[in-house]
Amino acid sequence: MYNSNYIYNSYVRSKKIISLKTHLFIIKKIKNIVFDHEKTTYYSEDEFTKITIFLNQNKDTPFLAPYSNFFMALCLLRHEKYEDAYQHIQKISLNTLPLGYLTSAISIINLSLAIQLKKKSIKNGTFIPLINPILSSQGVFTEHLPAPVEPFNYSILKDANNITIMRSIKLYNTMISKINHLVTKNNDVYPKAIIGLLDEIETALGKIRIAIDKTNTLPTENDFANIIINDKILTEREISQNLIGILSNCTLSNCINCLSAIFHYLRCFGEEPKLKNIRYYVDTSNKRNQEKKLIMDSLFIANEILCLNS
Fold first, then answer.
1. Residue 272 falls within a domain, yes or no?
2. Where are the alpha helices (DSSP H) in 193-235?
3. Quick check: is 147 in a domain?
4. How far apart are alpha carbons 266 and 166 in whole angstroms?
5. Whole-number Å distance between alpha carbons of 106 and 93
């Protein structure tokens, strides 16, 4: 027969196992709020309340403390207190965090809030201190995207910083759409997401489409380059300069080359209707790829003409 001490110890062990499983379940649930970018369900106020109550009831459990602190930032974001969330994130020391997803999650939100709140004052290279913790702490991830039009000339996607920024924005926008208490299941753009990053690309492609439609047959790259310059189809900025300020090497030509990727990462849910020209060129049919190659080659020639004339 089992003695009373054995029965008691077994009971205590089983209680500890159940408690640990509950703790791990909450930790994983908080992780999914940030990283489950395929999830389409919304996190209700009731779900947030349940997590908050659990964390408060277990506030004396040391290993839950950093998750509780991080969850406070998610609660602030849920109620549109973005400045407060940004300030809260700033106070969290990455060096004190446990192994796991917290360093990456906090760094992704920190980077995204910096873009959202300080977009107008951002300069190239500003994000490097924010990107490094993400690169050093993120797990392995695989995403399948259409190949560039010119596989050996895809400088946007070869830049690890660009990929990190774009992926962070996609995760952040998806998270915001899942947690905000005002979001509904319609096709409206949520105004508190990071939006408008593709506007200059959309405008330039719209002007190019009109110019191509006016030609009876698809022109040569030299002819179309002259049309772009002589008819002032595009501005000098649109021909040769960076059109996505938070990224590097985002000339119009480079963006066209990997348009599917930047559309995948940088569009916000609900933005699709206003990005009709980008959606037109995201098509990877042979006809559309020929048209994109013509545009890219013409932009290269047009840029050379501008350099010679300057």
1. yes
2. 199-213, 221-230
3. no
4. 6
5. 10
Q: Please tell me what DSSP assigns to residue 186.
A: S
Residue 4 confidence (pLDDT) = 52
- Tell me: do 213 and 299 sit in the same domain: yes
Whether residue 174 lies inside any domain: the answer is no
Nearest C-alpha neighbor of 255 from the set 272, 277, 271, 229: 277
pLDDT number for residue 88: 98
| CA–CA distance, 87 with 169 (Å, rounded to integer) | 19
- Output the six-digit token pair for 258: 């990997």
* Burial state string for 239-263 with b = 16 or more CB within 10 A and e = fewer than 16: bbebbbebbbbbbbbbbbbbbbbbb
Domain that holds residue 237: 152-157+182-309
- CB atoms under 10 Å from CB of 231, counted, come to 11
CA–CA gap between residue 259 and residue 253 (Å, rounded): 10
129 and 197 part of one domain: no
Q: Is residue 198 part of a domain?
A: yes
The predicted structure's pLDDT at residue 216: 83
Task: State pLDDT tens for residues 41-76.
Answer: 788 889 999 999 999 999 888 889 999 999 999 999
Question: In this structure, are 41 and 125 located in the same domain?
Answer: yes
Instruction: Work out how many domains the chain is built from and give that number.
Output: 2
Q: Are residues 132 and 8 in the same domain?
A: yes
Q: How far apart are CA 208 and CA 225, in angstroms?
A: 11
